[in-house]
Amino acid sequence: MTNRIAILLGVIIVALALLDLFVLSGAGLLFLGRRLSDLIEWLAFWR
Fewer beta carbons under 10 A from the terminal one: N or C of the chain? Predict the structure, then answer.
């Protein structure tokens, strides 16, 4: 992955997060945070 592609992906992710915060009041980020928490708990079980 080149630096240009990495920067572009980073900008897209930040833009989508900001869009979610302003349009949907952060509901998508809250959902992803909860799912990430569940994933981490599930992975800790298998450790």
Answer: C
